[in-house]
TrEMBL record:
<dbReference type="InterPro" id="IPR036457">
    <property type="entry name" value="PPM-type-like_dom_sf"/>
</dbReference>
<feature type="domain" description="PPM-type phosphatase">
    <location>
        <begin position="175"/>
        <end position="390"/>
    </location>
</feature>
<dbReference type="GO" id="GO:0016791">
    <property type="term" value="F:phosphatase activity"/>
</dbReference>
<dbReference type="Pfam" id="PF07228">
    <property type="entry name" value="SpoIIE"/>
</dbReference>
<keyword id="KW-0378">Hydrolase</keyword>
<dbReference type="InterPro" id="IPR001932">
    <property type="entry name" value="PPM-type_phosphatase-like_dom"/>
</dbReference>
<dbReference type="InterPro" id="IPR052016">
    <property type="entry name" value="Bact_Sigma-Reg"/>
</dbReference>
<protein>
    <submittedName>
        <fullName>Serine/threonine-protein phosphatase</fullName>
    </submittedName>
</protein>
Length: 395
């Protein structure tokens, strides 16, 4: 492949990907990139549910050898969200690792092997755009094939975890005004914890829910709660009324025997004015100018505990540069083997140590600190962490 050919724009790459069968995106990518930039090898690696490894997508049920999501060239591309070029000796060439991210949701890495001299800046830029287009198609293809969801798992999910992961909007979201990064543990056995968000032209709504119980019972409760909250939100009503309608739905089903603790937040994207309904145990922290504090909200009844509970909204303000952290009770109430709580002091230390890291890594660092404090990755309770960086409206 000559240098002139390698620098030409990829011909209708997005259209070719859209035309591919859902399971054939990797094979189609290999063909497009071989013809467009002389790629000798193309590998799609997807982050597993625990965000510990990047798994190659191949012929299932067999997959290639996973690589670390934290170390090495591919892991560096995933963490930094920047291309990483690896120099190869035998045979000479370059292995270009490109992050795959869809609207702030980090999916994995696309690794492309190029012949020597072919990894120029223009080619790397084209490959980055291609990786983004591929990410969008992988997300869409998930409606029609299990291939990419299967490739993400290092072991079988429990049924409760399968239901919870399907309920999530993703693990991140980004706009000019904000960036969200979130994480759940234990990833393969999660039951009742959930996070959800929705954005429009003027507002962002964010909820974190902790359904009581464990396993399938907790998952069913949380599914009902999140569905009820979404139904109320999509009716265009206020935050307090969303909580009230969800409360009625849960109480009607369980009669107060099961309930869900939920924190509802709504942000005005122009002014930073925030409204909140604290219906249970998730806690909210804010880091501003190097100082971390818990935002104290009026504790109201969990959803479904009593019939026809009336909820009230509270107001607070976020400013450009603020970092917000929401954690479920499985985080702030976890104890070590010696009985010590993983409380506010530990969260403050982690927030301070990760201030320069993106929200995704801060959320993961909180979970890593929690596991270290607990002394085992087998957490006794589900743990949900959502980190939000507030940038404010574009100037």
């Amino acid at each position: 492949m000559d240098a002139v050919k390698a620098s030409e724009p990829l011909p209708s790459a997005e259209a070719l990907l859209r035309a591919a069968a859902p399971h054939a995106l990797v094979a189609t990518s290999r063909r497009i990139l071989a013809e467009g930039v002389g790629a000798q090898e193309v590998t799609l690696l997807l982050a597993d549910y625990g965000l510990t490894v990047l798994q190659p997508v191949s012929h299932l049920p067999h997959t290639g050898t996973p690589v670390s999501a934290h170390d090495g060239p591919a892991g560096s591309a995933f963490l930094t969200q920047n291309p990483v070029i690896e120099v190869l000796q035998e045979p000479a060439g370059h292995l270009v690792h490109l992050p795959i991210t869809v609207r702030g949701d980090r999916l994995g890495v696309l690794s492309v092997r190029l012949p020597a001299g072919a990894a120029g800046p223009d080619t790397v830029l084209q490959l980055g755009r291609f990786a983004t287009a591929l990410g969008h198609e992988v997300t869409t293809a998930g409606r029609d094939t299990d291939l990419y969801l299967q490739a993400r798992r290092t072991r079988r999910l429990t049924l409760a975890a399968e239901m919870q992961w399907q309920l999530l909007p993703g693990r991140g979201c980004a706009r000019d005004e904000y960036v969200i990064g979130a994480h759940l543990e234990p990833a393969y056995t999660i039951g009742g914890d959930n996070f959800d968000w929705s954005t429009d032209a003027d507002h962002l709504v964010l909820t974190v829910t902790d359904g009581m119980g464990q396993g399938i019972d907790a998952s069913l409760l949380t599914s009902l709660t999140v569905g009820a909250l979404r139904n109320a939100r999509r009716a265009g009503i206020g935050l307090a009324d969303q909580a009230s309608l969800a409360d009625q739905a849960v109480y009607a089903q369980y009669g107060g025997k099961m309930y869900a603790s939920t924190l509802l937040l709504r942000f005005d994207l122009t002014t930073g004015a925030a409204r909140a309904v604290d219906a249970g145990s998730p806690q909210l922290f804010r880091e501003r100018d190097g100082h971390t504090e818990r935002i104290e909200l009026e504790a109201q009844m969990p959803l479904g505990m009593f019939e026809e509970t009336v909820y009230e909204e509270q107001a607070f303000q976020v400013e450009p540069g603020d970092r917000l952290l929401v954690v479920s009770s499985g985080v702030h109430s976890t104890r070590s083997a010696g009985g010590d709580l993983f409380g506010e002091q530990a969260l403050r230390l982690i927030l301070g140590a990760t201030r320069s890291a993106p929200p995704h890594e801060t959320a993961r660092a909180v979970v890593a600190g929690l596991i270290e404090h607990h002394g085992s990755s087998e957490l006794m309770s589900d743990a949900a962490v959502v980190c939000l960086d507030w940038h404010g409206p574009p100037s």
